[in-house]
Amino acid sequence: MHPEDNSLVNQGLQQALQTKGAYHCEFRVVWEDSSIHWVEGRGHAFYNEAGQPVRMAGTIMAIDERKQAQRELQQQFEQQRLVMGMTQRIRQSLNLQDILQTTVDEVRQFLTCDRVTIFKFSLGWGGTVVVESVAPEWMAILPLQIYDPCIGEENVEPFKRA
């Protein structure tokens, strides 16, 4: 059994014994190759005439796939919640600068990254960072004008299509 789940399993067993109810618990186990897997334990106790538990019977079933599906579903739900919240906050303003700032703030939170910028190209394929959201531990670059000779018609084409 995974060491972090010992108390959870023991608590579930104690509760089942005290209430004389069914035992049900999901917990992790560590295999001989050190890989960690999820299992579901279900069972019930048998009691003597004095009401004391004498044995337990139950099953253990592997549930790795179900746990993975639950994690993926939770991630999708969280992403949808963030996008809906982002959309709602963006719609609260008609000011373009507020909308762009809210967008970069929300995208940085959504992607859990250090920096998100909006870059405006100028003639000659230079440009300026016009909106930025940056984590507190990083230096802001707004407003930064950039001219990079690597930015040219052939390299900008994918941006035009996006």
CATH architecture of the largest domain: 2-Layer Sandwich
How many β-strand stretches? 6
Number of domains: 2
* CATH fold type of the largest domain: Beta-Lactamase
**Morphology:** elongated
Task: Please give a handful of descriptors for the protein shown.
162 residues, alpha+beta, Beta-Lactamase, 2 domains, 3-stranded antiparallel beta sheet, 4 helices, 6 strands, 41% helix, 29% strand
Write the SSE topology.
Layout: H1 6-19, E1 23-30, E2 36-47, E3 53-62, H2 64-91, H3 96-111, E4 115-121, E5 127-134, E6 145-146, H4 153-161
Antiparallel strand pairs: 1-2, 2-3, 4-5, 5-6
Please describe what this structure looks like:
With 162 residues, this protein is of the alpha+beta class. The protein folds into two domains: 3-62, PAS domain (Beta-Lactamase); 68-161, Beta-Lactamase (2-Layer Sandwich). It is built from four helices and six strands; from the N terminus they run αβββααβββα. It has helices at 6-19, 64-91, 96-111, 153-161, and strands at residues 23-30, 36-47, 53-62, 115-121, 127-134, 145-146. The strands form two sheets. A three-stranded antiparallel sheet has the order 1-2-3, with helices on both faces. Strand 4 and strand 5 form a beta hairpin. Helix 2 runs antiparallel to helix 3 (96-111). The protein is elongated, with a radius of gyration of 28 Å. The two termini are 50 Å apart. The mean pLDDT is 88.
